[in-house]
Amino acid sequence: MSNFQxxxxxxxDILSGYIKDGGLHELYNLCFNAPxxxxxxxxxxxxxxxxxxxxxxxxxxxxxxxxxxxxIAAFPLKLEEKVYQIVKNHLVDVDKYWYHAxxxxxxxxxxxxxxxxxxxxxxxxxxxxxxxxxxxTQEGNEASKSLHLKLGxxxxxxxxxxxxxxxxxxxxRHEPDKRIFLYYERD
Length: 187
Ligand SMILES: CC(C)(COP(=O)(O)OP(=O)(O)OC[C@H]1O[C@@H](n2cnc3c(N)ncnc32)[C@H](O)[C@@H]1OP(=O)(O)O)[C@@H](O)C(=O)NCCC(=O)NCCS
Fold this sequence. Notes:
Blueprint: E1 5-8, H1 12-20, H2 24-32, H3 43-56, E2 58-64, E3 67-76, H4 81-87, E4 98-105, H5 116-125, E5 132-138, H6 142-151, E6 154-155, E7 162-164, E8 176-185
Parallel strand pairs: 4-5
Antiparallel strand pairs: 1-2, 2-3, 3-4, 5-8, 6-8, 7-8
Bound molecules: coenzyme A.
Coenzyme A binds next to strand 4, helix 5 and helix 6.
């Protein structure tokens, strides 16, 4: 049995402590500076991204002691304008959907593939006032694709997810990137 703790963060001051002292900034980069993302996020960017999760949606962290080893966030899809515009004609009653915006588990083998992402997802499911979600992931991210399918997401066919990346790449690359979109509907 692990002693991992799953906590919802609703307060920006508490969030700030986890970003700096709990290692959330470092964890985010560990999750996304490897291929296929190759991204690097400054601490102020992490404050902005997670601040939005905290105020506009639902944010959960997984802790091992005081160290953050996992995160998940979701918020109403209409607040993610770019994704909303892409999927709106492919879903019935699009305004009832939330966006599964972010998920990550620390890459150490003691944490990956131990059910942390699945547990974080269940924590979100128990909190959100909806049973409809959209997610977006990179086509080449097998772990993320497999995770979403296992959680019950289905691929939204016929949606063109090719775009020029706007994200902060370590190699300063701004090139076509292929994302897939998925949807989830709880019974
Ligand atoms: C994707 C990610 C969040 C999975 O986290 P995790 O805590 O290891 O996942 P879980 O242990 O809960 O695994 C749940 C399911 O996901 C799938 N999965 C997870 N890692 C996988 C991998 N490396 N390869 C294939 N499938 C994988 C499996 O279906 C797994 O179920 P199983 O172990 O019963 O087969 C993690 O690999 C990660 O942080 N990756 C980098 C960040 C990222 O890509 N986030 C998604 C962006 S959209």
